[in-house]
């Protein structure tokens, strides 16, 4: 028999806990019971993600929503992620369980009646807009987040708008940045259209982390960072990278991609080919800037060039480190009105610095000779020996002549608007320049350079670039050999087959290519540089079953360089540097 005291205990245990019901986000998390022995008496439940098993000692709604929308390493179902991304973007969640309550952190202070009137002007919508603007300011201007708790910054904010509640640093670094990130992702998904390109590259951070950036580029040159992933714990095999690439492609939509662009690393090349096997309409493209940089590196590694670059580096290093020598050189530069600045360093990872280094030596040639004649006591024996070498400056000038077309090609092809046709033209210009190296003083070196160029040329999938050149309305088949037309048609047919074209449409495509080559209607419009773009010129050419237009727009939409990844890594390197975190 149960007495009245036991009945009371049973009814108490069955009674619902007081307070608000838990947010629906908890259905994706396992509850971790609170520690009743905790001295801080914080009896809030902990949480563990059901997908990736990450745990929190205290489950906060905002952090849990942000985790599912942005951070979960196991990627919850797309519908779950999309739902909470929208919730985070709209800010439609209860954030009262975060530690931003002024009641907890602010001591009581006698308020004035005017403060109440001024606070009435700041609605929830205004508070949200002010907070978003503040978040953008801190992130885009790279302002340290602790500034938000600086008393002078708080006073400044209150002077601008007394009713605005300045958020705490912990809220700025979590909830507010997560909300803004969700907004950016939502906007990015709206703007992504067809014919997008996925570029990727790897980088080792100053902390030794292996980071990979996945960058989406549209046909009009806009860039969107899809994700930055830490693969330090993973083996970077082609199969692993293929799976990671496919995750990105399928999340955005495989039908929206036309190419994957990366450098020459063998594992990445394998991954691109595996992805192209699964999605034949996505072409594996080799980064043209990396390819030309490899050519430059191969030339620099040749014995004759290596000796010259080594001597140039020694001269630059000496004048950079010697206070007296550097001052005299700067004085000579000013007095002789030498344009272009002083000596430039050669940095292996900076693609055009080999040319810049040799060019600076030639530019400062007279100044260096003046110092050698009049101030030789400032120079060490090694520098004196180099400057007195017979034909030293002539050899540097010859090497500069070789590197100039390579530098021009790299600069021209790093632009966001670069097309495959531009690559074709610059490769031809480089080939012509290297064949003309016989005019330099070192004939053996000229032959070695030509061999290096021929080797790199064979590694290139040249047919894509040849077809893109032909489909550029400014060039068409200008300068091409007679037998090249067949190669162009065969490449066009192979791509058309990958796009799902049948025999009838393939025959129509060949007929349209022939009419385009002959400038027959509707392909008889003149292409005016500076007025027309390749895209709008092709959109003017209208006819039924316009297969060649579809093919041309596809080729012009391919971005042949992932140099943007390098730029973002440079920014990230500065951001992660110790100087940034002081």
From TrEMBL:
Any Pfam family hit: zf-BED
Taxonomic classification: Eukaryota, Fungi, Fungi incertae sedis, Mucoromycota, Glomeromycotina
Keyword entries, A-Z: Metal-binding, Nucleus, Transcription, Transcription regulation, Zinc, Zinc-finger
Subcellular location: Nucleus
GO CC terms in record: nucleus
Region spans: Disordered: 1-25
Broad class of the protein's primary localization: nucleus
SUPFAM superfamilies xref list: Ribonuclease H-like (SSF53098)
Species this protein is from: Diversispora epigaea
Protein's name according to its UniProt entry: BED-type domain-containing protein
């Amino acid at each position: 028999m149960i007495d009245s005291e036991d009945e009371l205990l049973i009814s108490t245990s069955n009674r619902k806990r007081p307070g608000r019901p838990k947010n629906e986000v908890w259905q994706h998390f396992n509850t971790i019971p609170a520690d009743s022995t905790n001295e801080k008496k914080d009896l809030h439940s902990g949480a563990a993600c059901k997908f990736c098993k990450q745990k929190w000692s205290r489950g906060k709604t905002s952090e849990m929503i942000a985790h599912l929308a942005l951070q979960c390493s196991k990627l919850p179902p797309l519908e779950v992620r999309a739902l909470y991304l929208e919730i985070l973007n709209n800010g439609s969640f209860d954030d009262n369980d975060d530690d931003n309550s002024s009641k907890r952190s602010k001591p009581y202070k006698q308020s004035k009646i005017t403060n109440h009137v001024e606070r009435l002007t700041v609605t929830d919508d205004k508070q949200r807009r002010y907070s978003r603007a503040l978040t953008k300011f801190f992130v885009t201007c790279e302002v340290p987040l602790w500034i938000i708790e600086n008393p002078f910054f708080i006073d400044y904010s209150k002077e601008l708008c007394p009713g605005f509640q300045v958020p705490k640093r912990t809220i700025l670094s979590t909830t507010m940045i997560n909300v803004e990130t969700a907004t950016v992702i939502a906007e990015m998904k709206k703007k992504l259209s067809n014919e997008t390109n996925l570029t990727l590259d790897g980088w080792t951070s100053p902390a030794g982390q292996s980071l990979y950036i996945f960058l989406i580029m549209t046909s009009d040159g806009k860039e969107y960072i899809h994700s930055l992933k830490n693969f330090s714990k993973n083996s970077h095999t082609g199969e692993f990278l293929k799976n990671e690439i496919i995750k990105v492609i399928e999340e955005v939509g495989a039908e929206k991609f036309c190419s994957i662009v990366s450098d020459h690393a063998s594992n990445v090349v394998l991954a691109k080919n595996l992805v192209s096997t699964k999605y034949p309409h996505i072409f594996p493209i080799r980064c043209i800037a990396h390819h030309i940089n490899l050519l430059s590196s191969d030339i620099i590694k040749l014995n004759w060039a290596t000796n010259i670059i080594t001597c140039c580096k020694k001269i630059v290093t000496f004048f950079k480190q010697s206070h007296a020598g550097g001052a005299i050189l700067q004085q000579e530069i000013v007095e002789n009105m030498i344009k272009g600045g002083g000596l430039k360093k050669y940095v292996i990872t900076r693609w055009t610095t080999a040319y810049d280094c040799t060019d600076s030596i030639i530019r400062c040639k007279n100044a260096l000779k003046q110092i050698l004649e009049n101030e030789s006591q400032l120079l060490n024996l090694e520098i004196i020996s180099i400057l007195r070498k017979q034909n030293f400056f002539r050899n540097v000038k010859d090497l500069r002549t070789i590197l100039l077309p390579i530098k021009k090609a790299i600069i021209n092809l790093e632009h966001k608007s670069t097309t495959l046709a531009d690559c074709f033209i610059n490769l031809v210009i480089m080939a012509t320049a290297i064949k003309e190296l016989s005019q330099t003083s070192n004939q053996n070196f000229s032959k070695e350079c030509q061999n290096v160029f021929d080797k790199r040329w064979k590694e290139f999938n040249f047919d894509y670039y040849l077809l893109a050149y032909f489909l550029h309305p400014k060039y068409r088949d200008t300068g091409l050999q007679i037998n090249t037309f067949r190669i162009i048609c065969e490449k066009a047919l192979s791509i058309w087959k990958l796009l799902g074209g049948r025999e009838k449409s393939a025959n129509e495509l060949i007929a349209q290519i022939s009419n385009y080559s002959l400038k027959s209607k509707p392909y008889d419009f003149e292409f005016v540089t500076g007025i027309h773009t390749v895209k709008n010129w092709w959109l003017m050419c209208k006819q039924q079953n316009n297969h060649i237009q579809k093919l041309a727009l596809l080729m012009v939409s391919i971005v042949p360089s992932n140099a943007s990844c390098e730029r973002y890594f440079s920014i990230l390197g500065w951001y992660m540097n110790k100087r940034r975190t002081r």
